């Protein structure tokens, strides 16, 4: 095996060192970005859960309004229009 000149070996070591630092930097960035992604995912899930809860609470109220409106549709037109105004103002 041939001996590398001192300058070539020094350059080789510098290149290895630079690549090790870059590799470590990329690993650190990967961990940081994955942690941020996990936090964002938790926030999105929390928001979705809140929205689902809010919508679930609205469903009974909307069902009640629909039933009320269906009942009012059976009334004469003049009574229906008066009742609609009061129902929609809620």
Automatic annotation (TrEMBL):
InterPro entries: TRIM/RBCC (IPR050143). PANTHER family: E3 UBIQUITIN-PROTEIN LIGASE TRIM. This is Tripartite motif containing 26. It comes from Chelydra serpentina (Snapping turtle).
